[in-house]
Amino acid sequence: MTRRYGRTAAGLSAGIAAGLVWGLAFLLPVLLGGWNPVIVTVGRYLAYGLLSALLFALGGRPMRQLARQHWRLALAFAVAGNAGYYLLLVVGIRAAGASLTDMVIGAIPVVVAVAGNWLSPAYRWRRLALPLILVTSGLVLVSTLEITGVHAYQPGPAGEKIIGLIAACGAVILWTWYALANARFLTTRQAVSSAHWSTVVGVATGAVTLAGLPLAALTGQFAAPASGSPGTGQLIAAVVILGAVVSWTGTWLWNLASGRLSPTLAGLLVNVETVAGFAYVYAAKLQWPPLGQLTGLLLVITGVALAVPRSEPAATSRACEQS
Fold first, then answer.
1. Contact residues for 236 (Cβ-Cβ < 8 A; gap 6+)
2. CA pair distance 250, 22, nearest whole angstrom
3. What distances in angstroms separate CA 129 from CA 167, 190, 268, 305, one per listed residue?
């Protein structure tokens, strides 16, 4: 019992830390101003891939054996959790608008939590209801305020918006599959090092990014921004932080959490990324969030906090559901 709670505490710490690290992905693109988000993302994943390649070369036989045994899964996670997810996100933003897409993407923690509890029960559904209601209400409130206050109307044909929404929903499906499959992989293979797996997936992500460079170049994604934007030095510094800290370290922490927590609780902890991202952006602007957004973020935090003590062993939960 003590060991189980120790693993849970370690998983919670790692999941919260992962969210705090991933929140930087909201801040750094804002600080980069006019740089194309595709350039920022390609730089991020190339930096992630290069760091991972270096660590892979130093990892010795255990690392090579892990990659040889699971390279197909690593490639699938590189697409679903990184490159493919982001590609669909960009399509959604450009076709349906940033606000509408962000509202769809904001549902990822809830979708992961519900799907995770359905596939691997860790909560009685009635005990999960209040945290999910609070989290969903907070996300909807923040998203609605963003839509009405920042992008009240997104011009464009209805067909384009439908395509954008389909792409955004596809991004949610991809990342949900990645989160649940990654958790299942790590919990069934306790001997796999979280750091080694982050490195192997990073090598695969770098390879996928390199393969996508010609397409990005042909579609004109590498055009330099207008003058007055942060310079190349700031871009390089930002993508190195995104690759080394946000991607490699964040994935390592997420792997630690995924191997120690139920998919439901790990999914709810993804909300820490959203809250941290908003906090970082407003802190950089030396501003407090508006009261409505602050209320929404507090609802999210409260929902996650309420979910933590309600987690139960899977077998107990199944028995309760059947009774």
1. 43
2. 6
3. 28, 31, 13, 13
Contact call for residues 179 and 135 (beta carbons, < 8 A): no
For the record, the structure tokens of 130 come out as 């209040």
Number of H helices, E strands in the chain: 16, 0
Number of structural domains the chain divides into? 1
Q: What does 226-258 look like in DSSP terms, one character per residue? A: PTTS--HHHHHHHHHHIIIIIIIIHHHHHHHHH
DSSP string, 35-96: S-HHHHHHHHHHHHHHHHHHHHHHSHHHHHHHHHHHHHHHHHHHIIIIIHHHHHHHHHHHHH
Alpha-carbon distance of 45 to 83, in angstroms, equals 8
Domain residues for 75?
2-322
pLDDT by residue (tens digit) across 5-53? 677 888 999 999 999 999 898 888 888 877 888 888 899 999 999 999 9
Amino acid at site 212: G
pLDDT band for position 149 (cuts 50, 70, 90): low
What are 254-312's pLDDT values in tens digits?
999 998 888 888 888 988 988 888 888 888 888 888 888 889 889 989 988 888 765 54
- pLDDT value of position 257: 93
What is the per-residue pLDDT for 27? 86
